[in-house]
Amino acid sequence: MAHDTAADVRTLTCIRCPKGCAITVTLEDGEVTSVTGNTCPRGDEYARKEVTNPTRTVTSVVPVHGSATCSMVSVKTAEDVPRDCVRGVIDALRVVSVEAPVRIGDVIVPNVCGTGVNVVATKNC
Amino acid sequence: MPSPAITSTALATYDVVIVGGGSAGLAAAIAARDAGSDSVVMVERDDRLGGILNQCIHNGFGLHTFKEELTGPEYAARFIAQADERHIERLLKTTVLDIRRTDADSNPSTPADSTTPADPTHPIDVCCVNAERGVFHLRAASVVLAMGCRERARGALDIPGTRPAGVYTAGCAQHLVNIEGQLPGRRVVILGSGDIGLIMARRLTLEGATVACVAEVMPYSGGLKRNIVQCLDDFDIPLLLSHTVVNVEGERRVEAVTIAQVDEKSLRPIPGTERRIECDTLLLSVGLLPENELSSAAGVSISPTTRGPLVNESLQTSVPGVFACGNVLHVHDLVDYVSEEAAHAGASAAAHAQALRDANANPPAATPATPDLELPIECANGVRYTVPTTVAPTRMGRSLKVRFRVSGVFENRHVSVYVGERRIYHKLRPMLAPGEMQEVILVSKQLEGARPGEKIRVLLEEE
């Protein structure tokens, strides 16, 4: 006999790899009780994280002065930041510009938006 | 028109000339060098290596190759560093005009010669132009075509309406935002759900534009799922499947577009479903076309399905010594697969150059050996194309990756490979979609005993 609880069932598309498994996550009282549809452990990990603490890598560009080859240098958050911080990171980058030379990995903005994550260059300019 | 006169100065001669210095050209060059070719050159028309990766600032590149998520410029930088370490020559800001085998007098053969096939052991002439040297020639034992693809533009779509400014391809907008630092518009409609369109929906939103919707004429998206999740769902941008743009308004600048639902079968707009959306920009992400004008002029046979060269297991085209890889061969969704494929082409090109050297040093006996058995690969039942389209079991090594795309969305189908009537591969795939390239690995042992006249067939089966 199936007992009906206040189960919250969410369907997600796994983005850990291009396969894009359709994953079903069941939550009860905010706790993940089952993950199905994934074909590897990374899918399970992704689904649990996506329903409890979704994060994203943010990428953008900032102006670079004094470079012979580039007018903009591409940047990224060195690690994922909470999804709710994505727009905050972009806003923080709006007022930033850098001087050449810039190397991949150079810190452009430390501890962006208090996330503890640095924004780093992704291009040599 | 006669070929430009060749000056008496000694021509630069290479084992492998690679046309293009993007992701495919870089990987091909590195692999050719590592396979023993001493003289390898990349000819690149842009002022830097890396190709389209330079403007793909988003992350997600390199999961297969480097086991980490890199941005496009970082992925390119890793390969450029490898090319630098190997001191691989490159000609930047240089365009290849023509690829043609040389004749008995060591001149590029003229088209009139094409009735008598040129000796496939003769070197290939690669005619180039740049601002410094004007028109000049390179000689190559092998050529790798790695020119990539370009975007389908408005002219290919027959969208009715006016012709105002503000209609861009998604890749053009990507260049404007990420390389030039310019926002192409404020209120945007995107037609087509190819990956670049999805990526640009997010990019423009983050830069302060409003993306009203992404309209896709097919009942499914041509983009990767991760891009639908991270670029559209995250920002509540609607994806309107089975919709297209039926009108563009505006005199000097786009003022509005009209979208309408289409019939899933005929893809024709359904009267009464039109909706007008005010906007200043229309982005097109409606497909990529391999850039094969050079290949065709060189006599390379082109597949009507992929619009790329027909190749064998070594990724050699119908012209001996000319190889192809990356998006000029068939459009890929992941750069990692481009790099892997291009490395195969580069190694094959190096082996071809070595074989020509060996043959010249030690001419083969008068009676040629019997040619290798070549099996054609055919596709059916939902498989739209394969790369390669022929396999010589004697030349494939221990295994061979056959890449393919399906013609629609299929759930729970088996991918099967037959040699003649013998099924050698049969595996369940829960989900197959046209936007995601598939692969099967053929093992040479499975092809043992294949007879002349037999075919390899790749198809989908219900069970």
Describe what this molecule looks like in 3D:
With 125 residues, chain A is α+β, with helices and mostly antiparallel strands. Chain A has 2 domains: 8-53, no CATH class; 59-121, CPE0013-like fold. Chain A is 16% helix and 35% strand. Chain A is built from 2 helices and 10 strands; from the N terminus they run E-E-E-H-E-E-E-E-H-E-E-E. In chain A, the strands form 3 sheets. In chain A, strands 8-5-6-10-9 form a 5-stranded mixed β-sheet, with no helix packed on it. In chain A, strand 2 and strand 3 (31-36) form a beta hairpin. The longest helix of chain A has 12 residues, at 41-52. Chain A is elongated. Chain B has 3 domains: 12-149 and 289-361, FAD/NAD(P)-binding domain (3-Layer(bba) Sandwich), CATH 3.50.50; 153-286, FAD/NAD(P)-binding domain (3-Layer(bba) Sandwich); 375-461, Immunoglobulins (Immunoglobulin-like), CATH 2.60.40. The radius of gyration of chain B is 24 Å and the shape is globular. With 463 residues, chain B is α/β, with parallel strands linked by helices. In chain B, the strands form 7 sheets. In chain B, strands 1, 2, 5, 6, 7, 8 and 19 form a 7-stranded mixed β-sheet that branches. Classes of the chains: A alpha+beta (125), B alpha/beta (463). Chains A and B meet through strand 5, strand 6 and helix 2 of A and strand 4, helix 2, helix 3 and helix 5 of B.
Give a brief description.
The complex is a heterodimer of chains A (125) and B (463). With 125 residues, chain A is of the alpha+beta class.
How big a fraction of the residues of chain B is strand? 25-35%
Structural class of chain B: alpha/beta
The dominant shape of chain B is globular
Helix tally of chain A? 2
